[in-house]
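Researcher: Quick test of sequence recovery. Tokens follow.
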């Protein structure tokens, strides 16, 4: 039976005049039940059961692989099976309808039909007659299959099937949009999970390196300073002044190396970020910078860990650029959370640079590796980095990250 070109006007004549407007209103209500596939399919199942005077309706929707159908909506009590029943295309009556894009009517003795595959959880043996119709969008994209069943024998007429096809065509577009929304949401969740995993892996490696430096290099440097002190005490100052001087220089070098190792440990994994959150981490970072007078404007807000880590690293890189390249006397670090957006800004009154030259002063890389690294970190957590600079007018680095307002980390 051809299905092309069906629309709202095709409802006319398939139901009584009094029922026509009510049915169209029911279809509008069902397709307006929200962006979710399951809520919409549930509303569709209830509406079709009433419209066709059947006992139960199953709405099978094509899954995201386009290779099987999943039960997305059903008349109670079968709504408990939503999401649990899957049929490969070509399997069962629904799979056959999906593959051939043609309706099927079985008046009785379903078990004798070679296309029929019993599904215990849907209690097919309780129902005598069934009709199944494809749901398609223009110009013929399959969305799913509608099945209606009756306990008593029913001779489904061509008008009944035409009504199912019309309803299927009218709701297919909305269900297709719901599927696209679900796929987009899944991709967004996958991206967020990927970002968290990447940042977690990076931080895990930083923890390992920090531990290796602390347990290995730092401990050996401490032992070296003890031995140098002992050597200095054992040397006769009057006879070996030169040896004493060299030992003192060696000890100074060991102390300097130990300080650099401890600084590297702090840079690899600052414990204050775990204990005090981003605001505390930024304040601690600022206190370690003596070359520039820093002003802080920090909101006491906790964010998801992977976002806090990303913003901290961006601030760390920005402040290193300020110290190394800007020749600034003062700088400002601002962190705010408002209207579902986290915002970090690091600005200085230094020499600035010309963005058109695509080169950060003091670096050998076009565009500046640090800038690229910061932009990648921001994008990894769904944010955006912007740099405003002009020769003689300083530089401002701004990061904005939209937040999921439902995340519990933002409501503690």
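Model:
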């Amino acid at each position: 039976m051809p299905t092309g070109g069906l629309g709202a006007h095709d409802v006319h004549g398939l139901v009584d005049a009094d029922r026509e407007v009510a049915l169209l209103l029911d279809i509008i209500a069902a397709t307006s039940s929200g962006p979710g596939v399951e809520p919409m399919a549930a509303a569709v199942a209830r509406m079709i059961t009433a419209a066709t005077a059947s006992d139960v309706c199953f709405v099978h929707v094509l899954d995201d692989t386009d290779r099987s159908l999943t039960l997305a909506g059903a008349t109670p009590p079968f709504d408990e099976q939503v999401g649990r029943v899957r049929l490969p295309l070509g399997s069962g009556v629904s799979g056959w309808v999906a593959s051939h894009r043609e309706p099927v009517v079985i008046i009785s003795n379903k078990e004798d039909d070679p296309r029929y595959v019993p599904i215990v959880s849907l209690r097919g043996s309780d129902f005598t007659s069934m009709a199944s119709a494809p749901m398609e969008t223009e110009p013929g994209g399959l969305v799913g299959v509608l099945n209606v069943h009756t306990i008593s024998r029913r001779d489904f007429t061509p008008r009944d099937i035409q009504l199912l096809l019309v309803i299927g065509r009218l709701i297919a577009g909305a269900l297709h949009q719901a599927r696209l929304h679900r796929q987009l949401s899944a991709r967004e969740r996958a991206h967020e999970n990927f970002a968290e995993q990447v940042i977690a892996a990076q931080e895990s490696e930083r923890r390992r390196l920090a531990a290796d430096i602390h347990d290995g290099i730092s401990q050996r440097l401490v032992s070296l300073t003890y031995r140098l002190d002992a050597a200095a005490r054992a040397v006769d100052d009057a006879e070996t002044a030169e040896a004493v001087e060299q030992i003192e220089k060696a000890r100074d070098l060991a102390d300097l190396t130990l300080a650099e190792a401890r600084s590297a440990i702090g840079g690899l994994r600052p414990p204050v970020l775990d204990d005090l959150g981003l605001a505390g981490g930024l304040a601690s970072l600022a206190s370690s910078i003596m070359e520039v007078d820093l002003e802080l404007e920090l909101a006491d807000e906790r964010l998801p860990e992977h976002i806090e880590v990303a913003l901290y690293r961006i601030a760390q890189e920005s402040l290193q650029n300020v110290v190394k390249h800007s020749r600034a006397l003062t700088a400002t670090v601002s962190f705010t959370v408002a209207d579902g957006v986290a915002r970090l800004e690091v600005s200085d009154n230094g020499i600035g640079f010309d963005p058109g030259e695509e080169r950060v002063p003091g670096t050998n890389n076009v565009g500046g590796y640090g800038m690229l690294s910061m932009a990648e970190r921001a994008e990894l957590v769904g944010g955006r980095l912007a740099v405003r600079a002009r020769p003689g007018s300083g530089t401002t680095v701004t990061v904005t990250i939209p937040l999921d307002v439902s995340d519990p980390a933002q409501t503690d």
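The chain is about 45% helix and 20% strand.
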